[in-house]
Amino acid sequence: xxxxxxxxxxxxSDKSWExxxxxxxxxASKSVKNxxxxxxxxxxxxxxxxxxxxFRVNVKITFEVK
Length: 66
Known about the structure:
Layout: E1 3-13, H1 17-28, E2 35-48, E3 51-65
Antiparallel strand pairs: 1-3, 2-3
């Protein structure tokens, strides 16, 4: 039986929500091992002068506890 834990991570990108998600997982993987999945809980964007300048995600990362 595997024991799984979930953490919530916020990340941003100037490219896309997908890039922000990848950054969240990459950064979390520096200290969290055995990541199994990522769930995008929320996404939003910052708008300046009518242009989207930043994409933000709130993700839940699931990993196995050994």
